[in-house]
Amino acid sequence: MASFKELGLDEKILQAVTDMGFETPSEVQEKTIPILLDRETDIVSLAQTGTGKTAAFGFPMLQKINVDSRTTQGLILSPTRELCLQITNELINYGKHYKGLNVTAIYGGASISEQSRQIKKGAQIVVATPGRMKDMIGRGMVDISKVEYCVLDEADEMLNMGFYEDITEILSHTPKDKSTWLFSATMPKEVSKIAKKFMNAPVEITIGSKNVGSENVSHEYYLVNARDRYLALKRLADANPDIFSVVFCRTKRDTQKVAEKLIEDGYNAAAIHGDLSQNQRDLVMKSFRTRQIQMLVATDVAARGIDVDDITHVINYQLPDEIETYTHRSGRTGRAGKSGVSMVIVSKSERRKISQIEKIIQKKFEQKEIPGGMEICEIQLFHLANSIKDTKVNHEIDPYLPNINEVLEDFTKEELIKKVFSVEFTRFFNYYKNEKDLNAVAASSAGQDSGKSYSDDKVRYFINIGSRDDFNWQSLKDFLRDLLGLGQDDVFHVDVHDSFSFFNTDAKHTELVMGIFSDFVLDGRKISVELSKEGRRKGGGGKGRGRGNKKGHRKGGNRGGGGGRDGGKPSFKGKSRRKDSKPKGKGTSGRRRRR
Ligand code: ADP
Ligand code: MG
Fold first, then answer.
1. Residue 482 belongs to what H/E stretch?
2. Is residue 53 lining ligand 1, measured as CB closer than 6 Å?
3. Can you tell me the distance from the alpha carbon of 492 to that of 153, in angstroms, rounded to the nearest whole number?
4. 22, 33, 82: which to mutate for ligand 1, most atoms within 8 A of CB?
5. Are 50 and 90 in contact (CB under 8 A)?
6. Domain locations in the chain?
7. Where are the alpha helices (DSSP H) in 322-400?
8. Taking Cα atoms as reference points, which of 328, 312, 338, 244 lies closest to residue 52?
9. Angle at 54 between CA 214 and CA 116, to 5 degrees
């Protein structure tokens, strides 16, 4: 990754970069800035919101204009007054070491004569919304006939808002031989039309995939009481034993805190945020890439540098302050053709933000339930069974086998299985057996998912098919509905795991379900369905207080990260590490936490 200096920026800007605490250029900056500094060219640069586009055009513009002149040389058009002010402030900030620089904001709803006065003082750069700009041109209040660089920022948004005509009009007052720099998150037809009409052989730069809201990402949210946020996070991790994720927090402090707690509770976790040195961050990233870390807890800014392709889950531990940032977060998963899940843990007061985000990503969220303790135990048990099945035998142990066999010779296979699983599982089970239900009761479930509310007469089932059989929650739901001849919402809360899944129906359908699956074969394989422990437990201590033993059982023997350290006993969590992870003990997250 290049440094800002290597991009060809001059000392005044580098100074500002340091002042602002930017450490490395974002991808769009890295790709755009050298080109714009190097030559006079038109450019189309596509990058999602929050990727640092302002500096991508702002730095080169500042460096290229002549601050000793009072002529307006740069024009930036942006869709809204807020953005206009934001860009203006950013540019002033970026250019604060240039003496004599004037950046003026032009937007509707404020005094036009005051803005006119500002320009007359000699604004080298004008940042404007199209409507007000056109107005001022019409009144002869601004001269853009000497503009050398014209930026169309958030071009897709401007066109969405119906500014096509205004933009055409404004550009007709600018010189033919200026450079036009177009920035956009997406490239709808209207934007390519603008590019064709107003630009001259533009260089095209695309950051990430062309279509923003990645097709491969599904979005889920979990409603919990704010104080249960951390416990919910742990359950989500435990319900996904192969998780390889980025967990987003709002502040550096929370990032550090959550990572520390996870490590303490035996997860392979680490924090990445701006208070770490470059060296520390490199180390964390290296461990993440090599899967020694399964959960990377990050701030939004620090996550900019994460270029890892097969992240399975993005977890929004807290939603970002600016909901636009959500796209950027969720875009960390579902890359390189793989599918991914973006999970949001929300409290009731934040829930309305979900629908705001839905508008931005133009996709619906699915409201899901934080899995109950027994469901997690089931998931972990099957995960363990599958891991055993997939494990390559280590022949180094061959010499010891005769003696081991002798010790165990009196047991049948069934007995051995029971014992092996008990060894691995008791701690996990003890931790979860008294845990409470974490799902906050929603005031109303308006607009959610199937509209099904949880009631005592629902039944949860376990079924031995999953994503390995090419099912996702939607296709499994469809499959079951068709098979059972049930209606749209009669099969709900479908959760697909690798080799098994869960689903719910109303209790009145239980006989039907169990009947059909008593003898059902799919592609030559017997498909079995069982009532999930979780479903049967309902009404029994589900809401129990947990007697404050939340950590106790997990700790000690269950420090998965360093499983090897306490006497070589494999811990449950340790077992569930990704197959390709390095042997435990060395360099795992357990040690990293004291930085
Ligand atoms: P976009 O226009 O692509 O939506 P912005 O230019 O508004 O994104 O940048 C989003 C945020 O990221 C801003 O707060 C900005 O100050 C910050 N930022 C930009 N570039 C960097 C960088 N290289 N390192 C750290 N933060 C950055
Ligand atoms: Mg922007």
1. helix 473-484
2. yes
3. 43
4. 22
5. no
6. 5-206, 217-371, 374-432
7. 325-330, 352-361, 373-390
8. 328
9. 130
Measured in degrees and rounded to the nearest 5, phi and psi for residue 219 equal -115, 130
Cα-based distances in Å from 500 to 297, 434, 495, 529: 28, 24, 9, 10
- Maximum Cα interatomic distance, the chain, rounded to a whole number of Å: 99
Rounded CA-CA distance 28/51 in Å is: 7
55 lines ligand 1 (CB under 6 A): yes
Ligand 1 centroid distance, CA of 360 (Å): 19
- Check: CB of residue 127 under 8 Å from CB of residue 156: no
CB 293 within 8 Å of CB 268:
yes
* CATH number for the domain running over 5-206: 3.40.50.300
> CATH for 217-371?
3.40.50.300
Helix residue ranges per DSSP H, 146-251? 155-160, 164-171, 189-198, 229-238
If you count them, how many residues does the chain have? 595
Output the six-digit token pair for 574.
């340790």
CB 75 within 8 A of CB 134: no
Ligand 1 atom showing the smallest separation from residue 90 Cα: 16
Burial 447-469 (b: 16+ CB within 10 A, else e): ebebebeeeeebbbbbbbbbbeb
**Whose CA is closest to 465, among 515, 523, 509, 511?**
523
Chain center to CA of 337: 16
226 CA → ligand 1 middle, Å: 29
Whole-model pTM over 0.90: no
CB distance 25 to ligand 1 below 6 Å: yes
Q: Which tokens in the block code for residue 396?
A: 């180094």
Compute the distance from residue 75 Cα to the ligand 2 centre, in Å. 15
Strands of the sheet with 203-206, listed across from one edge: 103-106, 125-128, 74-77, 149-152, 179-184, 43-46, 203-206
> What is the token pair recorded at 280?
């520390």
217-371: same fold as 5-206?
yes
Q: How far apart (Å, rounded) are the C-alpha atoms in residues 18 and 483?
A: 62
Structure tokens belonging to residue 127:
């940042």
pLDDT in tens, the chain (595 residues): 689 999 999 999 999 999 998 888 988 999 999 999 999 999 999 987 778 899 999 999 999 999 999 999 999 999 888 889 989 999 999 999 999 999 999 999 889 999 999 999 999 999 999 999 999 999 999 999 999 999 999 998 888 778 999 999 999 999 999 999 999 987 878 888 888 888 999 999 988 644 344 677 899 999 999 889 999 999 999 999 989 999 999 999 999 999 999 999 889 999 999 888 878 888 998 899 999 999 999 998 788 657 687 899 999 999 988 877 898 888 888 876 678 899 999 998 888 889 888 888 888 899 999 998 888 888 988 888 888 888 898 899 899 999 999 999 999 999 999 888 888 778 778 888 777 888 887 544 433 333 344 446 888 999 999 988 888 888 899 899 988 888 878 899 899 888 899 999 998 899 899 988 988 888 888 888 988 876 544 433 333 333 333 333 333 333 333 333 222 223 444 333 333 333 333 333 332 322 2
